[in-house]
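[User] I wish I could look at a protein chain and see how it folds. I have put the entry right below:
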Amino acid sequence: MNSLAERSFLSIGQVVNLLRGSYPDLSNSKIRFLEDEGLITPHRTPKGYRQYSKEDVDRLEVILHLQKTRYMPLNVIKQRLDNAEDLSTLAYEVGLLSDVPLKAEPKETKQKLHPIEDIPDLLGVNISFVRQLAENDLVRIIRSPQNRELIDGRDFEIIRYCSELARFHIEPRNLRQYVLSANRESTMFEQVLIGMLGNDNSDEDRDAKLERAFKKLHDLTDGVHTALLKNRVFESLHAIVEDADVDVIDAELAKSEQRKHALEHEGASSNAATKQPAKRTRSTRGTRRS
């Protein structure tokens, strides 16, 4: 769901701008209508202005999502919201990304090999789904000497993420691009980390240093990737800068340049007038004859 600081508030116009990328038809009047129907109750300032908290925005996004994807009438949506024990859990259930974190696996589980038959009980996914992941190189199926199929516990996180993405109709075959990207980036990361830490394995803290350095590199490169991806998606959905906005900016800049040139011209004229020497005038008095 959309990110918003826990204690911050947005105006109704800011809420519309925040959610319009996903719900292009959203307007101030629609939000006020939902308030009139009792589905949302924003905070009011002493002067009566509406203020929307993170919970208000999350609740509104659930309502809009159910209208858009499930075609639910408002009375049914209201009942669903009223009966929900937790808004994040409801958002998770109806198909929105939520703040419900993926369960962390204990270290001993991550470092073990697990029979593929145990994966449904461990992770709640079908074996056929794990095979699809392996076919697209997202995880590996390891063969034991007895020809048993084993899954590396370090791949559990990938399986969980891919399972979540499948709920949004993003299949393992759609994620091949991330495999290729990881293969390219891993070489760059390895070179940087070797340059930072060297090949000395004697330092007991080397693993911790490696983890910290990797996290820093990942955060930076992931920030670039996320920003690029968001810009491309929003540009495609015409949610960042529209042609009309560009025309307005051009007109404003043109006016500003005209004013600047006019002021410069006036300044130059004024300076020229100031520097021009005064003309001598011939005296009208006659010269006295001696």
